[in-house]
Amino acid sequence: MGDGCRGRGRPRRDVVDRSISSLPDDLLHVILLRLQSTPDAVRTGVLSRRWRRVWAQVPDLSFDQDYCDHVLRLWSSSILRGIDAVVAAHSAPTLDRLAISVRRSAGDSTPALFAPWLRLASQRLAGELEIRFLPPPAPTALPNRLFRGAPVTIRSGSLERLKLDGGVADGRVTVDAPRLVRLEMSRTRHLDPSKVKGARIAAPELSELIWRNAYHPSRDQIADARRHLRKLEVVPPDYYSLYYSSKFEVPKKMSALFKRFDYVDELSMHMDIPSCDTDEDEVRHDYSLLLGALL
Fold it and tell me: 293 vs 150, 193, 218, CA distance in Å?
């Protein structure tokens, strides 16, 4: 009787695990992709010996420190060493996406941090690369040296989409990617345009460009790119960056980005209007200067 009841009850967990594990690798990869987190995919290795190798073939590596740092600490006492360990263990011949978002501290050596990630991207990435260095949590004041990004060089014959944020975009950036079609450059919100170190972009197939915050026409060079863009999205520095910099220099610098292209199918510009107690006439005047220079 006991056996009969057990047969009519819920399936035993080990039976379910064996059923899932018997699925083909391609289907298991789809399941792991739905997790949207490489550390979570790594954790499935506890299910069976087979699962220990399945995650390593998924063509997507995604790390978001705010979400999964507790998982990476199982691999290493350091979040960054944990990411490097997972990257080193990954064995898929081609990657569709590599996305890493980590918080940096004052003691981090930026080039040493992302060197192995860029090496992996240059060797195996055939899709999207996104590397973000976030500021330390809830700082009261950030030392200026945190905004001096280290030089970054990205050369890839297969990279199609690239997003650079914060400390990475603030430094000297060199991109040589003949198949790149979409580029997002998001510099630190309060970065003074005069402090821009410059970017040199060689992307003859570029069709979508999103540029946020500071732009310097002589230091930022989109040297090898089409004169016709499908989409151009520009987010000028916020009002306070405009206020504390020269009101005339910021519009002039931003307008140079528009003049780099002859035709744009879709143009988008975002502006941050302050809601604090600021003189309304002054705000209107400053933004009219910016709009007049850009249009």
Answer: 31, 16, 17
**Full strand arrangement of the beta sheet holding 199-202:** 152-155, 173-176, 199-202, 221-224
Q: Is 288 exposed, middle or buried (0-12, 13-18, 19+ CB in 10 A)?
A: exposed
Q: pLDDT per residue over 215-232, tens digit each? A: 877 788 888 788 888 998
Name the more confident of 260 and 106: 260
Total length of the chain: 295
Q: Tokens standing for 219?
A: 């230091």
Amino acid at 186: S
What b/e sequence results for 253-270 when a residue is b if at least 16 CB atoms lie within 10 Å of its CB, and e otherwise?
bbbbbeeebeebeeeeee
Alpha-carbon 276 to chain mean position? 31
Q: For residues 36-65, give the mean pLDDT.
A: 72
Cα radius of gyration (the chain): 24
Domain range list for the chain: 21-93, 118-134+147-295
User: What is the Cα–Cα distance from 58 to 35, expressed in whole angstroms?
Assistant: 11
3-state secondary structure of 262: coil
Distance CA 165, CA 185 (A): 6
Is the pTM higher than 0.85? no
Tell me the per-residue pLDDT of 94-153, one tens digit each, with 9 for 90 and over.
Answer: 888 888 877 665 445 556 667 788 888 888 888 888 877 765 554 444 444 444 566 888
